[in-house]
């Protein structure tokens, strides 16, 4: 893998590791506020970010070594309504202002596998932001834990779906059995 | 919290999030090679790094915002014997070349709570490196999964103990009930 693309991958690994941890903390906070469905939504997002981090890590494995990792991340741990707002903003930003340009950069280097991976993630993070937006609207409207159906996460691209997954993942075409139900 | 100490805390948060994820991947690899005890040791280390990341995140919460995170990390995913070797080296390095100077820096700014937290972590990462060294020696000697007793992790400072924990954590003095048994 070309050096610039590999470094993008490592930075994205760092960002995804941090997002994974942030969503675990947001989930604990939601459980504390007695919002079990939102806590479950954050667990689904945390698992999705773990899938992304793991994928990024494995893709750079040909260039073993010690590397610097740089990324920007929100530091917030507040009431659940604020955490959801920040999650919505950062998922949207990750799609438009992070993975889309990373995909273009990887494509310009001829790194088509990395480019496709970044493109999938741009789609996945966009889907997440829509899902978080719906949960946020519901919470703001009713001021109680919103109804959220069963959540499934694709363990190839990390897509979270609030319905029984179809035969193939709509983003990465992985088979249905790759989806994991989040408890 | 003073700005330099807060930035150290955020960088350490990033490093711990990445270490958490790396140990989860190492654990999967150890399980794949049929080393269930080493897989469990890596799960204990992953949980410990999660305790650290969570603690760092919570300590910076008065300075909410979007911040850059910078750290250096090993990128390796190999045979378990290599992963253990890298884990030994990086735990030792984290103690001596990371948390000890961070603690001195925080102390110089009068940030005594942060300094104590960094000092605890220097001790904890040192204890981890010794534990990983023993597992590595046993694996290299017998070429089979080494015997490892029950593993308990303090959920305040992240100390991993291979024995029933005493009344108080030897590092942070937390009560015995704070230790979690790793399955």
TrEMBL record, chains A, B:
GO terms for molecular function: iron ion binding; oxidoreductase activity. Pfam families: Rubrerythrin, RUBY_RBDX. PROSITE patterns: FERRITIN_LIKE (PS50905), RUBREDOXIN_LIKE (PS50903). The keyword Transport applies. InterPro entries: Ferritin-like (IPR012347), Ferritin-like_diiron (IPR009040), Ferritin-like_SF (IPR009078), Rbr2/Nigerythrin (IPR052753), Rr_diiron-bd_dom (IPR003251), Rubredoxin-like_dom (IPR024934), RUBY_RBDX (IPR048574). Transmembrane segments: none annotated. It comes from the Archaea. Keywords: Electron transport, Transport. The keyword Electron transport applies. CDD domains: Rubrerythrin (cd01041). Residues 1-143 form the Ferritin-like diiron domain. Residues 149-182 form the Rubredoxin-like domain. PANTHER family: RUBRERYTHRIN. This is Rubrerythrin. It comes from Methanocella paludicola (strain DSM 17711 / JCM 13418 / NBRC 101707 / SANAE).
């Amino acid at each position: 893998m070309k050096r610039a693309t590999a470094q993008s991958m490592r930075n994205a690994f760092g960002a995804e590791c941090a997002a994974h941890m942030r969503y675990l903390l947001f989930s604990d906070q939601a459980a504390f506020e007695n919002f079990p469905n939102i806590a479950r939504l954050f667990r689904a997002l945390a698992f999705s970010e773990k899938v992304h981090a793991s994928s990024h890590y494995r893709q750079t494995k040909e260039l073993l070594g010690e590397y610097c990792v740089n990324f920007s991340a929100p530091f917030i741990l507040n009431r659940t309504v604020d955490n959801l707002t920040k999650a919505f903003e950062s998922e949207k930003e990750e799609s438009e202002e992070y993975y889309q340009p990373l995909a273009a950069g990887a494509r310009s280097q001829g790194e088509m596998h990395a480019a496709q991976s970044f493109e999938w993630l741009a789609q996945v993070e966009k889907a997440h932001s829509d899902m978080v937006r719906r949960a946020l609207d519901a919470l703001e409207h009713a001021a109680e834990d919103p109804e959220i159906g069963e959540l499934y996460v694709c363990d190839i691209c990390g897509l979270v779906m609030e319905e029984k997954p179809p035969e193939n993942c709509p983003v990465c075409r992985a088979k249905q059995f790759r989806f994991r139900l989040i408890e």
